[in-house]
UniProtKB/TrEMBL annotation, chains A, B:
Residues 133-328 form the D-glutamate N-acetyltransferase-like C-terminal domain. Residues 48-125 form the D-glutamate N-acetyltransferase-like N-terminal domain. Gene3D superfamilies: NAD(P)-binding Rossmann-like Domain (3.40.50.720), P-loop containing nucleotide triphosphate hydrolases (3.40.50.300). This is DUF1611 domain-containing protein. Coiled coil: none annotated.
Length: 337, 337
């Protein structure tokens, strides 16, 4: 996937539900230096608190892309957005979208982009072809976030851990594998959009050879225990060849989300299965920590829970929203906390 | 994937190396009633022993498709084959290919197919879209072949086991997941060509609800221990929800083929990992048998080896080429041998 052009103008369309703006909030929070403003239709009521800039104004201030920062019904670009997207294209901005419907499926946008020499970047999709995985060892160090389920903090943990590693003076790069992560990083591979035969091969390309003391922090996808997505999870894990894994978990979730007949295994089992799987491409892989989404726990419950899990598994247990991931960063680096 | 039109005329191109005709031999051996002849260029020296029929003659005798039955250098259709393919199209035959290069990438073939109302079937590729896996239990019984590596007999075992189950009076259907299997069955899904997110979903469609006493015998792909293809293997396993697995192994192979740094685990470990993975979608999954490619062993070595593995794992150990799979079929059906 070619690199995205930053900085971004965040587009909020006609949104009236603050929860629809998850992508825009993620970009504002995780790459604040890369977002210079927001724009929306007059009927929109949602804002993410950035300066309001028209596409032309944003382009004049150096913006590289308009990023669709909200979810729409059915993942489709509604016709009401097209004039704004046209204006952005006419101002020389690339359009970046993580929606299911491709921007390139709109002939009018495609023609306009062609005319103005800008790119329509559908980061959820992948037209690139990848080689099969080799399994060959690469230089540099890698840590991957893995989960007991989907949607419980693997991206958030990878981003927080990247910052925590840097705060300890380590060289660290966040490697994005999903659409929001790709927008934040400006690059990456939407791993679940790759043809099945090439998952591991694509993951190998995502974290190429690097300096021996450099850490790639790889955003995990899906879960080994998810009946739909475990293939993506395993291929990504194998291609990543992680030296460390960080297990992400939400203790309030007892079964896979939307799959009530599929229980989440005990944490020790989950760790054992992830390590067994990861050893196929890195025999020295170890668990560096557990990252918990503890939003449903009181302070006292959280302290007790974290201590209990930490004693059982012998690694730091942190919540990035509750004290940060420094202890896990220390564990990744093999340093005392 | 729409059903292929049988019977087949097997095409051998300009082949002069008998080993190139693996696909044609597989079709001749596994669906003999569905192949009515072979055809090749004058310079070809390879034959699979079928009556020689021109495309026009084959069409006159009721053939539905010309199947490219040989491998070519680079997986590409050479220009020298095009006149024969054109003649087949003009005779009203579909063309079926398992090659990397798509038939549909030849504008002349595409135009001819359009003109004559026939189909170009690239069974290695998949343009179909699939839903995500649900994990919901389906009616009917399923057995999946799984392997310690690629290319050691998972298709052969699934086909043999289908016959062995039928010989015991059971209802059984072979479910194809790779190009040769699809040609043999006339239908199936090239699972490694599916977009990663939908591997399990495609596998769910491959073996739909069926009669309670019906067995789907699902052709496995790749291996959990292969650094490139394990994601395909796991997604296929999860979507298949097998009640039984049959492990396929070649004792002469100590490391993954072409990946000398990737050891094949001990059989007991391999079985444990496959069963753990399969339990995500079927808690009652069990090992029904081990299918061995024993071509490198003497009769005495084979007897000793089979007894040793059978004692260790507590299931029948067979070689489909050396006595057949009846003992494994009995184990699948829960019958005494």
């Amino acid at each position: 996937m070619p690199e995205l052009r930053k900085p971004y103008l965040l587009y909020l369309g006609d949104s009236t539900h603050p929860t629809d703006a998850k992508t825009a909030c993620g970009l504002r929070d995780w790459c604040p230096d890369d977002v210079i403003g927001e724009w929306s239709l007059p009927q929109a009521t949602v804002s993410v608190g950035l300066p309001r800039l028209s596409p032309a104004d944003a382009a004049a201030r150096g913006a590289g892309s308009l990023v669709i920062g909200i979810a729409s019904v059915g993942g489709r670009v509604p016709d009401s957005w097209l004039p704004d997207l046209d204006a952005a294209i006419a101002s020389g901005l690339d359009i970046v979208s993580g929606m299911h419907t491709r921007l390139t499926s709109f002939p009018s946008l495609l023609a306009a982009a062609q005319r103005h020499g800008v790119r329509l970047m559908d980061v959820r999709h992948s037209d690139a072809t990848f080689p099969a995985g080799t399994g060959n060892k690469r230089t540099g160090m890698r840590v991957a976030t893995v989960g007991t389920d989907c949607a419980l903090g693997k991206k958030y943990t990878a981003l927080s851990l990247t910052n925590a590693l840097r705060a300890r003076g380590a060289k660290a790069t966040f490697r994005a594998t999903g659409q929001t992560g790709i927008m934040i990083a400006g690059q990456g591979i939407a791993i679940d959009a790759v043809v099945a035969d090439f998952i591991a091969g694509a993951a190998e390309l995502l974290s190429p050879d690097n300096a021996p003391d450099h850490w790639d922090v790889i955003e995990g996808q899906g879960s080994l225990f998810h009946p739909a997505y475990a293939g993506v999870t395993l291929g990504l894990l194998h291609g990543s060849q992680p030296d460390c894994i960080v297990l992400c978990h939400d203790p309030s979730r007892l079964t896979i989300e939307y799959r009530p007949n599929h229980p989440i295994p005990p944490l020790a089992d989950a760790v054992a299965q992830y390590l067994t799987a990861a050893r196929v491409t890195n025999r020295n892989v170890r668990l560096a920590g557990v990252s918990i989404n503890s939003s449903t726990l009181s302070d006292e419950e959280w302290r007790t829970y974290a201590e209990c899990v930490s004693t059982e598994l012998g690694v730091p247990v942190c919540d990035p929203m509750r004290g940060g991931l420094d202890a896990i960063a220390a564990s990744v680096l093999g340093q005392g906390h």
